[in-house]
Amino acid sequence: MTEKANESRRNFLYLAAGGLGGVAAAATIVPFIGSMLPAADTLAASKTEYDVTTVAAGQLVVILWQGKPVFITNRTPELLKEVDGHDDMLKDKDSKAIPEVSQPWMNDPDRVKYRSIKPEYLVVSAICTHLGCIPGYKPTAGRKDWGDSVPADWPGGWHCPCHGSKYDISGRVINGSPAPFNLHALPYKYTSDTTVLIG
Amino acid sequence: MKLKQLLIAVGALSVVSFSQSAIANEGGVELKHAVIDVTSQEQIRRGLTVFTDVCMGCHSATFVTYKGLIDYPEIGLTREAVDELRGDYALTEGMRTDLSAEDAKGSYGKVPPDLSVIAYARKGGADYIYSVLTGFEHDPKGIIPDGNFNEYFPGHRIAMPDPMGWLDHDKEDTAQIEQDSQDVAAFLAFIADPHQNQRRAIGCWVLGFLLLLTLVLWRLKVEVWKDVKH
Amino acid sequence: MLNSMMKTKIFAWVDRRTDAGAIIKSQLTEYPAPKNLNYMWNFGSLALLVLVLQILTGVFLAMYYKPSAAVSYGQYTVAFDSVERIMRDVNFGWLIRYMHAVGASAFFVVVYMHIGRGLYYGSYKEPRELLWIIGVVILLIMQGAAFFGYLLPWGQMSFWGATVITNLFGALPVIGEYLQQLLRGGFAVGDPTLNRFFSLHYLFPLLLAAIVGGHIHALHVVHSNNPEGIDLTKEEEKIMFHPYYTVKDAFGVGVFLLFYCYFVFFNPHAWGYFIEVDNYVPANALSTPPHIAPVWYLTPWYTILRSFPDKLVGVLAMGGSLAILFALPFLDRSKVRSARYRPVFKQMVILFFIDVIVLGYCGHEPPTPVLKLVGQVATAYYFAFFFLLLIVPKFEKTKPVPEGI
Q1: Which of chain B's termini has less CB crowding within 10 Å, N or C?
Q2: How far is CA C4 from the centre of its chain?
Q3: Chain B partners of C39 at a C-beta cutoff of 8 Å?
């Protein structure tokens, strides 16, 4: 014969078993979800070093950082002059609209319009803030080199082939573009006179 | 009945495992026991130095990145120290020897194996590494030339030249060479599975928790089964 | 807990559309099971648990594993590198991979115990013949899945194991060579082989899951056998599966997980039995390891293969040793099921269990003349066991079986 079942003890054991089993199941989920996050070597590749002096004067280089394209331009004194004189055409001339378009070093008023640590080397995201295409580089002002693809008062900069968004030579978006924001500024620093470390 | 079955199975298994260990000893010489501690940063770092100074002349450990030497707490070098080690190699690259495969083949007749997982790839693991490093002797039969005879290497003829200078070393150096060999064995045992210490630490918690869970489930089973009349 | 859940509105909504309540009743809360099942009956639910664990860990491993034999550096290949990357760089990758590797062996431990129980208590006999046959199909698919999976790390054992096994098919007359090339996708084991084995390694567990569903369905039609091996006629001999066997199975799961986690966390290579030493040496088509043997769970059949001097006969014997399991329900015509009441069969079946262990041991060791002879004797008994079952019922004096339990 069996002894009398003890209801409260039974319920307690059910609860304890269910609770502990739940903890076990939850703890098992952690490594599985964790495994889907970027692996250590992917994270290690999240920083990119680049020698900016390899970019010829006036030229543009597109490199990859964390799998995404980045513009590095070597702006000549002539191109640097194009930064001024069209503030009324810009949606966000001081890059204040969202945090992504600014970096701490841009708080320096001399750097705001250049959007770079050293004025001549612009390091900026190459992803159009509209729908993610890579804008084309059309650095010189006016229509001489670019024909009808740019407006008559083109200040020089980038023109996105997908939906016609326009950016000036500092990657600031121009009024009338479908793109809402300036090209994103990137966290980078100079590790030597010539080398930048992005990320 | 069940018990009897179990006893027979256990008996059969023990006979099997006993005869197996007997056979294992019959084939080769018994390995020397390496005193290693894969949780000891001190020993692993000493082993790393031996590895970079001696082994890396010919061997790589391509799955061990320079970044790993900083990141694994069991090694935990500073960025500066690793920069000095790696020279022009990128931080994310594996530790690779400068000796090319062709040159190695020309000099030694074969390409030295990569050592990333060598501690798992050889029976005996760290004991084997330590034994081979300190196993260069004169061939008692006088057939294999000095430097190619190794007491612990399968077949005794080894292509690797005596890396630690064990053959004909001075007596006062014995302790140092043995220590260096064990240190590098510890390093290699560690890098074969760099998460092994974390694994064992987590394992203790898991087993402890499961013990509790199983205990509760056992009591629950006993409790619920009180309903069943036998 | 289940009861209160079944009273909710959501459950009622689902129930009206799926009849879930009736299914739960008929399969769990009002599914009758013999009350005298011993702990050997726990291995069925454990096998299901391991299957789920293997599929789960496998899906996550496949997110990082790369089936390519292209050389990356030195002797290493993309496949080997991706496994090491899982072990070193992927968050908790080491845990998931060791769970999968230990799980493969655990699966066979559990399933072999499950089969052994079925043999001992005569669970393959009428009316459970088809249940047994579906089970044998599951065993074959498991062995296939394990064999495909072992190739994936592309180590020496992977490569040479696959070479040896695909060579078996080459022994068959006429079609052998074509079959071999069909399996390998080339003239030797290589990159195409690795790719297709990965594909099949993913397919087989899905097949398993479906067939396991059929196995459970067949079980719930004919119901569980029991240690006495008798048909239950009285209601008081049965208890409901839930809660009695759910809590008993849960307790079994706890005990199983203790063993499983010990190996995963403290001894994942299991002295070279679960992951062989040579599989940490990258695959090399130019040099065979000094001693190659399959993983422990395939070694009994490997011994049967090696026991015959003729290649074709060996291959046929190995195939036959598995195929004969299908015929078992029709070979053994004794009316009594459980070995408890069959004195001759009991001796035979215990000897058979020992025999399989001996076969496994011989297959794992290098073939010395003595071991070869032992293996041949064991092979002879393996087959004799099945054929003796044809005549045993003619002279065996069975003990009287009880009326009830």
Answers
A1: C
A2: 37
A3: 2
Q: Which residues of C touch B21 (CB under 8 A)?
A: none
What is the C-alpha to C-alpha distance for residues C35 and C24, in angstroms, rounded to an integer?
20
What's the token pair of residue A180?
Answer: 């809402």
Positions of E strands within B50-202 = 61-65, 94-95
From the list C63, C88, C91, which residue is nearest A34 (CB)? C91
**Do the chains contact at C261 and B207, CB–CB below 8 Å?**
yes
Look at phi and psi of residue A67 and say left if phi exceeds 0, alpha if psi is from -120 to 50, else beta: left
Query: Which among A130, A119, A117, A194 has a CA at the least distance from the CA of A158?
Result: A130
How far apart (Å, rounded) are the C-alpha atoms in residues C146 and C197? 10
CATH for C293-405 (1.10.287.980, 3.90.1150.10, 1.10.3730.10, 3.40.720.10)? 1.10.287.980
pLDDT digit string, tens, across residues B146-201 = 889 999 999 999 999 999 999 989 999 999 999 999 999 999 999 999 999 999 99
Residue pair B36/B189 in contact (Cβ under 8 Å)? The answer is: yes
| pLDDT value at residue C333 | 92
B67/A24 CB distance under 8 A: no
The answer to whether A11 faces chain C, any CB pair under 8 Å, is no
pTM of the predicted protein model: 0.88
Tokens representing C337?
Answer: 């099921």
Q: How far apart (Å, rounded) are the C-alpha atoms in residues B135 and B183?
A: 16
Asked whether residue B110 is domain-assigned, the answer is yes
Q: Tell me, yes or no, if A163 is annotated catalytic.
A: yes
- Paired with C249 in beta bridges are none
Instruction: Mutation target for A interface from B66, B93, B219, B221: give the one with most A CBs within 10 A.
Output: B219
**C84, C244, C261: residue with CB nearest B210:** C261
C250:A17 CB<8 A? yes
In chain B, DSSP assigns E strands to 61-65, 94-95
What is the token pair recorded at C38?
């011993």
User: Using one digit for the tens of pLDDT, what is the confidence trace for A118-155?
Assistant: 989 999 999 999 999 999 999 988 888 888 888 888 98
| pLDDT digit string, tens, across residues C168-221 | 888 888 999 999 999 999 999 999 999 999 999 999 999 999 999 999 999 999
Q: What is the pLDDT of residue B20?
A: 47
Residues 57-86 of B with CB under 8 A from A: 65, 67, 71
Nearest to C118 by CA among C233, C224, C192, C8: C224
Both tokens of residue C339? 């070995």
What was the pLDDT predicted at C88? 96
Give B133's contacts (C-beta < 8 A, 6+ positions apart): B163, B164, B166, B181, B184, B185
Q: In this structure, how many other beta carbons lie within 10 angstroms of the beta carbon of residue C167?
A: 16
Could you list the residue range(s) of the whole structural domain that residue B15 is in?
1-27
CB contact under 8 A, C251 and B193: no
CB C227 within 8 A of CB C340: yes
Chain C residues within an 8 Å CB radius of B96: 73
- List the catalytic residue out of A86, A130, A159, A163: A163
In this structure, are residues B29 and B152 in contact, taking their beta carbons and an 8 Å threshold? yes
β-sheet bridge partners, residue C32: C240
**Tokens encoding A150:** 């740019």
User: Rounded to whole angstroms, how far apart are CA atoms A136 and A32?
Assistant: 42
Q: How far apart are CA C320 and CA C313, in angstroms?
A: 10
On the question of a cis peptide bond just before residue C243, with omega within 30 degrees of 0, the verdict is yes
- Residue A47 burial (CB count, 10 A): 15
Question: Out of B213, B219, B228, whose CB is closest to A21?
Answer: B213
Domain residue ranges in chain C: 26-286, 293-405
Write out chain C residues lying below 8 Å of B116, CB-based: 84
Find, in chain B, the residue whose alpha carbon is nearest to that of C255: B214
The CATH homologous superfamily for domain C26-286 is Cytochrome Bc1 Complex; Chain C (1.20.810.10)
